Amino acid sequence: MKLRRKILFAIILLVFIPVILMGTVTYINFSNAMEKKSSNFYWISLLETDRKLKFALSEIASISNSAITQPAIQQTLKQPEFVITYDRKQEINNLLINHPMITSFSLYSKDQLLYQYNAPMSYEDMKKQIWYGSMESAEGRPVWSGPGENGSAQAGNPVLIQARVIKDYYSLEDIGYLVVYVKPDLLDQIFWEAATLKKGDILLVNKQGNIVFNKSGEHIGQRTDFPFLESHYSKEQDYYIDYYEDEKSLITFLPSHNLDWYLVAITPMNLISSESDTIRNIAIILVMVSLLSAVLFDRYFVTRLVRSINSAVNGMKRVKQGIFMPITTPHRADDESDLLIDGFNQMSTQINELIEQVQTEQGRKKEAELQALMAQINPHFIYNSLESINSMAVLQGNKDISKMVISLGKLLRISISQNQELIPLHMEFEHVRHYLDIQKFRFEDKFSYAIEIPENLRTYMTQKLIVQPIVENALYHAIEQMENPGTIVLEASEVGPDLIIMVKDNGPGFDLLTLQSLWDKETGNQKKYNDSGVGLKNVHERLNIRFGSPYGILVCSSPGFGSTIRIRIPKILP
């Protein structure tokens, strides 16, 4: 892919896509926030509407509550002949027709219509009403039926009905029924005061899906299919978005105080989304501005930059062919692109010198590799010579020489044959064992040794040749100076994430000044260490460089009490 295309692609990734994503995410979040805010607003409006509805219905219910306990109604329902005088009718009228919203009522005994005021519904017709069963099961509590569910709206005379069973004041036996007819203006007044947006609507819906009443008054009695009316609906949210009357709308619902009713607010989504149009327009403007900026950036910067880079690339191709020509630019801009050309020109003038240096270094490298190959011959020569000596010792019957040669061979194989710096802990201890076996031939019975390594620590890795110099120190500075036989003990243990290697001897020990003197002189003054090239200080510095400051050696000694050298290394799995 060409560089210019890559830069344009980068601009798309770094500018266009982030701006589009930012605008989209902002628009979506703002729209969701508006939906949530609108839902909360309508939920509060529905809650206030339900409170007013409850107050209005309770006012009517209190009138009927008071009326059915009065002697005028109680005695009328309990007399055998059911004869109602004019005065009794006036008394009953005064009990019920004292509210401006109550238009009429009917009073029934257990088997017939006793008295009605502007409501000539027979007892048989009353039993056929949709609210009759609910009235019977309500046990005297008032049952409400709105215009959209009692059929009055479809008949052209919408009315709100309250029906209830009348019980004997003393025995609580059912003695009759009271049906009160209320003007729909009661609901209209309550719903008209409810806050809605333009073209919004508030519905009163029963559990069967019939619109009992609504603010606009256009759909009373119609059948709806709201999901929250289903028994299995999960009411985690009190709003959702769906189509109502073929228009996408925000639907907010609230269960009414009347358990058979729901209050529902319908708001067209285009009214809510209109408030998000500003965010959408700003996002579109940002995208257009970004597009214009990218075009200008490509015209006045990318083109010239790519031209400079192409000049440098062409110059590199000429260099590849062995042609060293400086790059000339017709127009200088005094920026990094000119520095690139100047740097290339300087590079082309120095490239011959670099080639000569590389050739010289290659010759030195080949010479070093040849010397390394020659150096590999020496260990094999030593191993072969030791094998020959061992064979001669076996033929001569000298087992001590044979054992010493075998130990020396194994010691050398570990010391110079292992290319890696880290070896298993058991191999390091095996190296020390061979070293001590060789020293036994020199010191004879002057010392004994013990090596203890737990089985679970054998495979952990350690720096090569860190224990043998410590043991060598113990032999030459402790055991060799003793008149009685000495002892050297090697132990390995684990402390948390670290390994601890202890080298103990029962020699004469030394004080701090002696240790400091030996530490300062250990770099090469003592002849005994010239061959090995390592010592206490060397081991400590090697461990400290590889593993860090917490790791190294710790010397514990006191005159007359022997010495203990503790080596601390981290646990390293193979």
UniProtKB/TrEMBL annotation:
Which cellular component, as a GO term, is one annotated location? Answer: plasma membrane
In the UniProt record, the signal sequence range is: none
Q: Which UniProt keywords apply?
A: Cell membrane, Kinase, Membrane, Phosphoprotein, Transferase, Transmembrane, Transmembrane helix
Q: PROSITE patterns, from UniProt?
A: HAMP
- Domain HAMP, by residue range, is 303-356
**GO molecular function per UniProt:** phosphorelay sensor kinase activity
Bilayer topology: Multi-pass membrane protein
Q: Where in the cell is it found?
A: Cell membrane
Transmembrane segments annotated in the record for this chain? 7-30
Coiled-coil segments? none
InterPro entries associated with the record: Bact_2-comp_sensor_kinase, dCache_1, HAMP_dom, HATPase_C_sf, HATPase_dom, Sig_transdc_His_kin_internal
Q: Which PANTHER family match?
A: SENSOR HISTIDINE KINASE YPDA (PTHR34220)
Entry protein name: Histidine kinase
Which species expresses this protein natively?
A: Paenibacillus wynnii
Q: Which taxonomic lineage is given here?
A: Bacteria, Bacillati, Bacillota, Bacilli, Bacillales
